[in-house]
Write a structure and sequence with these properties.
The structure is a homopentamer of 324-residue chains. Chain A has 324 residues and is α+β, with helices and mostly antiparallel strands. Chain A has 12 helices and 7 strands. Chain A has helices at residues 21-28, 44-53, 58-66, 122-129, 132-136, 139-152, 154-173, 181-198, 202-210, 218-284, 292-295, 299-321; strands at residues 2-9, 12-13, 34-40, 72-76, 79-90, 95-105, 109-115. Chain A is rod-shaped, with a radius of gyration of 35 Å.
Chain lengths: 324, 324, 324, 324, 324
């Protein structure tokens, strides 16, 4: 689906609503003007017109339609092809929802293809259109704006993860100490997936920031350096979570084990306490003819008193050892 | 066994059925023509004719006959020697079945040697023959087609693994929580084996994609870059599985331990409950002459009632603590 | 908040109290003079004057106001932008408190922006002002003094960690052997955070030490090499703690498990000892008509003696096996 | 001990039996001829003659006599000094027995020094002597033959390990599930030792294969590339074993734990079953005067029946839960 | 404290006892002569004379007095500054005792500063003085002699560790299987500390061996290469120990756990055996009026026989399952 299509010149949008692609191209034929076409999960047919117009490489086009790529930046002749992964944290399910944005960048055009719902580009376009300076940098300026937005959107996703990691930590070390293995494992899984979506982007951004490329003007490069820096922080955090979750999984095992063992010890201690009067009663339940105690007037209360005494002593001893 | 042998010129197969090798070679002596010989687990004798014809290096020939190589790309003079590992997931046994394809590439010939059953090349040859463009790139075009097919075939193998990993996860965190250590271990073993078969291919593909080599035309290089990218995704996935399976193995240990401890706690709690009436009964089984309760008319039901009361209280307490 | 502002020339402060920024700048227009402006958590408005005066890059300005950066060094045109993380160990809570210092360095100015409380720069300024040699090196000399102070302040933080790690080790291997999982985990968390704050600083310091930069005079470079060396030691230590804490967490699990098992064994052994007289008593509590022992005069004491003998033997056996 | 000494010219051995060193050297003074001296654990005295003759560097000589080196390749002036580790699997003890071969290579001589018994060089010499082509490459040809043999001999050692790893896996996951920790640990230890013996060889072999050196003719280089490839496979395997053994050690812990817990659960379940009739019997062993059931004609069989019923029900319940 | 000070020329010591520094310097003003000053934990005052004489850099001087550096090599103008860590194994405490040697090397002087007791330099000086060849290489020859000695001294420390690691292994897998967690952990801690003291030395030694430096003559370089090789072996070993100790810690946990579980199983089995006669006795202790067995003449011995039979059978069954 073609979401929007417009030509930009002198840092301004040339038309109000979406333009026909043909008109936009005509308009962009001028110096310093460029076209920005935005697509959302296009069919092969929808994309064919665009790709033939800009001579996009067949391999990149295939990637753009089928998505599920790794983040990357490829050069096909004069065209730059960039794949980005968007991320959104769905708190109710504790999962990272990934989307994909694919970008074709030429001298006077930029084509953006979006898959999945995570990050919309509509607001971004409005924002870019209001920033004359950025628009003047041409397609590279738009590229930076998109990459910056995608990486900025990693922030809230990280915060979502952060909260859940903190929550799970508290649960593991709380008094109740129920088994949190599954939740920890699922969180770790999300962290690994997020890492896979963000880490490979680092290298291409660095290339944009440090190597000369005719499509990326000198003054835009510093902005890509800034993106690189953001990405490095995202990775630092994610790798931190991975480490922490691994440790928490181990700690969880230990906490649950300790707690269960305490329960067992408590039950066993009670059984041990009960075993003593049973034993004493057994002795006085024997049928010997000559057991003088049995004839005593206060034999019974004395023995019951003995039982209580022994049990009480045991109870106090166990209490002191922390077994009860 | 020689499976097929044909000469190709101007993007077309020159003969319908398999040709004699000699005829094919004569035909390929022309400009722009080349021979494609396909072999399946050839004996030393069968291979001798081919290797002497194309002056293949003795070390490469030895590798080609005995197989069990690592994926690699070697240059012997003007010949490129490539080793590929094919992979197929046998779901019934949950194993990755590996095969091997060895390729000799010269200016006007390509010799493919297949070991094992995993990936057949017959369909591929038909497909290549129908793609005039690729054929026009000569042996390098065929090489790409084969590598591309092999790496594409990793896809279904990965999906098979993915399903089994998800299955094992669900089993581990399910209520029943039986011990899944063996299955997890076997899966991990397969993942490691798959990694060993695919990871080393990355470097040679990158060399084909980025360095100039007279046998690989400029326009084919982008295609090898695409293969590199596919391989990177395969590795990302496999390393993800390795990480996850390691965590699942730990989680499994914890889950099974927790479950077994719960069982023990339950049994012990019941034993503890039974110990109380036994103790009380023991007391009234004592043979003291002076035990006033024994003479009471309602002594027996009162004591039985007491037993039931104590047991009931214990039962409720244990239930509340989650021990029963 | 502007904390201090002064111009320096010939290794001396030109004014006693804080100067107006404008005056300072006029003064610094001379050769060899420079301005040092110190800010503490400035608002956007407060910073605007400074940043426009020195033509600071908008990206760096944004970083300076919002803080929460990774340690880094960036070049924006003729300006060097450095981000440092300060660290302080709060022993009562066993946490590393991080602060941030951001520095803009130009030919004749240095602007320092401090966030958080960890490391104050007031004492440092006095110290720098009393060191004529360093001041003569201009802004780069001041930069070194700050970086040196920040890295030196890592020392006490490390010592704090060191003590707590040693403490936790002793606790884990002590007789009492209570569960220390949470404390170990929290310490590890702090170590990871500290690593994240200090490790990335290494690379920029090395760049200052080894690459030529017009703002950093030859003779100052050796000092940055020294800082690099300090940082390497800090990292060695932190990575050591990470390793040790991981091992301690494991050892803790093992120690607690062993201790709890010992308790269980002890209780079970006592239950086993009690089971024997209960069994014997049970036998002589049977109501058979023909049980000759029951009629013996010394049957009762003999049997009680037997019980004591058996229990005593069991007790000694268990003692010898280390079960009691 | 001097094992053999011979001069070779035109791809042929010049003498049948061992020659005197002096004669051999005279013979080798001719063009294209070279000497091969084979030593086995030489004393300092035995080696002095050789080392002074060929001006071997004192550091290399020291290494050659005392052995226990890492695999390495060093250049001392015009002499190449190579250290190789041989490996042999002693199945009865499940250990890797390491030996050492040290080689001095000059323009017209090769001196081999062998320590330990693992790989003999006698058969190898015969084999080399029968391969005229290789001999024509001079000392470098012999060097390749030795390295190739040493690395080839890693194969059987790996197979031995492979079998034992597979065996230990089967044991761990078998029904009997006895504790295999020691065996796994010992195997891992051997794997680590083997890795240490083989991994460092990789880098020098790559240097021989890729960099020009006057002593290694162009056409021999491809053969060293082949050795590199073999070594890479050996390492892949060993690292695979290391990974697997780590996982097996964990799985073993889990398997043994699970099995032992099952035993405990079974015993406890039986104790629980026995507790019920004991309790019922206790009740009817009480001495109350008014217990109507005691007077019933069928009271006894009814109660015994009740006991059997309860025990049977418990038994079936436990069986269903998998506790028995 | 100044330990010794002497001038050397033509491979000989110029004076017998320690010289005054001033005299030594005069003497060293000649060509080819140099001074070697040996200090032990000097005070700032003691060191001031030396450092001003040779124009040592203030940063290096600071390091030399306060010690606790990482091993490193720095160039300050024409002076080389080297920091070495000495290691000694104190077997009684199972710890690695680290010392420090700091060396300043100029064209005609070498200053050695020793901290801690580990490695004395007195014997070394005598040894160097008796080796004319080495002395002729000037300060660089002395530097090599010291480094070589320090690294050689790592050998006995490694052997000490090796023995203790082997001992702990045997203990863990022995029959008695007491908990060795603390000892293993302490050993690992020492290994990590040793690694930290030796690993960073590798890189500077390689620089001395491979890069040209005016103070290090060509023929001395090979000797530093040898040191590099030694260091590599030390690291291989230490990393091996680290790996092994990690595995042993895990194995220890498993061994102790298994052993304790066996104890528990044994105790539980005995309790289970005792439960059976208790139950039977309970049945015949019931007070029913109609229990025909009670009247039988041989009822009592028959029941006791039954008890023995059941217990015997249980005993044999448990024995067979390996529970007793």
């Amino acid at each position: 689906m073609i979401v929007d299509c417009a030509a930009y010149a002198d840092g301004q949008r040339c038309n109000d609503g979406p333009m026909e692609i043909d008109h936009a191209l005509e308009r962009a034929a001028d110096d310093d003007a460029f076209v920005w076409i935005g697509l959302h999960e296009p069919t092969e047919q929808e994309f064919a017109a665009v790709s033939s117009e800009f001579h996009l490489h067949e391999l990149a086009v295939e990637d753009a339609i089928h998505a599920h790529q790794r983040p990357k930046l490829e050069l096909y002749g004069d065209t730059i092809f960039v794949v980005l992964k968007t991320a959104r944290y769905v708190d109710s399910q504790e999962i990272i929802e990934l989307g994909e944005i694919l970008i074709f960048l030429g001298e006077d055009f930029i084509v953006t293809v979006r898959h999945g719902e995570a990050t919309g580009l509509h607001d971004l376009r409005e924002q870019v259109e209001s920033d004359k300076e950025m628009l003047k940098h041409g397609p590279a300026g738009v590229l930076h704006a998109i990459v910056d937005k995608v990486v900025d959107d990693y922030g809230p996703a990280l915060e979502g993860l952060d909260e859940d990691v903190a929550e799970v930590e508290d649960e593991v070390f709380s008094e109740s100490s129920t088994n949190r293995a599954e939740r920890i494992y699922r969180l770790k899984r999300e962290v690994l997936q997020f890492l896979k979506a963000s880490t490979p982007l680092s290298e291409p951004m660095q290339r944009l920031a440090h190597r000369e490329h005719p499509l990326v003007p000198e003054e835009v490069r510093a902005y890509f350096r800034d993106v690189t820096d953001h990405l490095a922080r995202v990775q630092d955090q994610l790798e931190g979570y991975r480490d922490l979750l691994t440790s928490v999984l181990e700690a969880n095992l230990s906490q649950v084990g300790v707690r269960q063992n305490e329960d067992m010890r408590k039950i066993s201690a009670w059984v041990a306490i009960a075993a003593v009067p049973t034993m004493i009663a057994g002795v006085y339940g024997m049928n010997f003819e000559h057991m003088p105690e049995l004839g005593w007037t206060y034999g019974y209360p004395a023995i019951v008193g003995l039982m209580l005494l022994v049990c009480g002593t045991l109870f106090r001893t166990f209490k002191k050892s922390g077994w009860l």
